[in-house]
Amino acid sequence: MKNKYFIVLLTLLFSTTLLFGCGKSSEQSKQASVNAESKKELVVGMSLDFVPFETTDANGKPTGVGVDMAYDLGKALGREVRIENIARSGLIPALQTKKIDMIISSMTITEERLKSIDFSKPYAKGWMCLLINKNSPVEKVEDLNVKGRKIAIHNGTIAYNYAQKNLPNAEMLLFEDVKTCILEVIQGKADAMIYDQITVYDTWKANEAATKVNLTPIDSKMNWGVGIRKEDKELTEKVNAFIDEYKKNGGFDKLADKYLSDKKKTFEELGIPFFFD
User: Fold this and answer.
1) What is the Cα 270 distance to its own chain's centre?
2) pLDDT at 245
3) What is the distance between the alpha carbons of residues 106 and 102, in angstroms, rounded to a whole number?
4) Is the distance from CB of 198 to CB of 129 less than 8 angstroms?
5) Cα 197–185–155 angle (5° rounding)?
6) pLDDT (average), residues 188-208
7) What band does 221 get if pLDDT is binned at 50, 70 and 90?
8) Which residues contact 119 (CB under 8 A, 6 or more apart)?
9) Which pLDDT score is estimated for 274?
10) Can you tell me the distance from the alpha carbon of 90 to that of 143, in angstroms, rounded to the nearest whole number?
């Protein structure tokens, strides 16, 4: 009888050991998975042709508002950041095929894009306006909706969607970078270009002999967000939390002071709301 009780006791002890051992192993495995995820490289896609938000310096190194924001986000997530320079029209396909983990590229949140990907909460606001060739009769956006008028459009941008919907009579000249769009307007090959107010204003000031502007906002306010795959809900939550904390701690104010101080003053003088207001 004693032997029987002894065997039962050993069995219970063995089972308990296995139970706690498995629990510990499971917890260790879970922690290892969390650690591995935190060390995983964060690949951020952006189109490095939008000064001063996403661009390159004299050495070809990524720089700008979006670039600094991406690195700060990586620090908050405990992940090393690698930036991939991708043409704007290729950013969403790159995200969908998992070549990148997210998009930070001054990308406007639209209903059309929301069919394909998710976005974080807005982190900035922007508006479109017109850069116009000096010799063109165009004065306002409605003047473009005439047969024979030519609009230089940066492919894959909100300007493309706007022109398609609202300017069916104009001829769209599509290009993969904003610099070519600007050159088309300066050279008179296009009547105008639809783009953000900072780019338009800076280009006009640098080329007043060849261009004119209408800085009145076109269409509605545009909200910029971080593009994330629909299935990456946890990452979206983390990015939203980062944006809230970044705003609270003055992160966007610091970026504005670093890259946009003169623009902010100009916006105030023109009575135009600023990107991070």
Assistant:
1) 26
2) 98
3) 12
4) no
5) 70
6) 93
7) low
8) 107, 109, 113, 225, 226, 227, 228
9) 80
10) 31
